[in-house]
Amino acid sequence: MKKKSYILYVIVVILLIISTIIVYTKGFNIGIYYSEGESIRVTTVNSIDMKEIKQIVGEIWANQPYHVSKVELFDNSFAVKVLEHNDENIETLVSKINEKYSEELTTDDVVIEKVANVRVRHLLEPYAIPTMISLLLILMFYSIRYRGTKEMIGLIKVLILVGVLGVSIYAICRIPIDISFCSIAFSTYILTIVFYSTYSELKLRGMITSKKETKIVE
């Protein structure tokens, strides 16, 4: 094993151990979108501007994370996800909306629901089978294209290294797992395959050579 590869594997193992300890003791840092909290839904008569609604919500819940989303197809309903609220928050929200959009809402018009947290494995479950099928097809292509298992094993190693590195970054740096998590994970998976496939193709065509191959040629 090359010295550089050995050092890389040692770093990956260390990161894996550290991230495992952090996840076991603290868990992942779940963002407001997937965390346990309260959903506050408001429906108005007139159309609303989501930018203005986000500004209002930001002023009311300035000291805690929040997420504002549009509800349904019409422009008169929105939902706010927060960790917790009090009566003053709801009264202020209703008052500001009435003033901004000439509404006549009361606190009774606000629908508040408790929302349970979402586990990380539940986020990834819908992507597990499609990812495994796509990876299996890619590995089959590799076995035909490159006539052997060397490049297949190399791709698997790279995917594992990138996966461990990604999980470690989220765990150690305490990056919140939010609505963009699955998109980032899937994009990273695709880009890793694209870059490694490009590297393998260039190497097959002799456009990239290793030091060992260079010495043999010389």
How do the strands line up in the largest sheet? 2-3-1-4
Give the DSSP E fraction (strand runs of 2 or more residues): 5-15%
Written as H for each helix and E for each strand, in order along the chain, the element string is HEHEEHEHHHH
Q: Care to count the β-strands?
A: 4
Quaternary structure type: single chain
Helix segment tally: 7
The end-to-end span amounts to 23 Å
Which structural class fits the helix and strand makeup? Answer: alpha+beta
Tell me the major beta sheet: 4 strands, antiparallel
What percent of the residues sit in helical stretches (DSSP H or I)? Answer: 55-70%
Mean of pLDDT: 88
Radius of gyration, Cα only, in angstroms?
25 Å
Indicate the overall shape: elongated
Number of separate structural domains:
2
Ranges where pLDDT stays below 50 over 5 or more residues in a row are 213-218
Report on the structure:
With 218 residues, the chain is an alpha+beta fold. It has two domains: 3-29 and 119-211, no CATH class; 37-115, ACT domain (Alpha-Beta Plaits, 2-Layer Sandwich). It is 59% helix and 11% strand. Strands 2-3-1-4 form a four-stranded antiparallel β-sheet, covered by helices on one side. It is elongated and about 70 Å long.
Quick structural summary:
The protein has 218 residues and is α+β, with helices and mostly antiparallel strands.
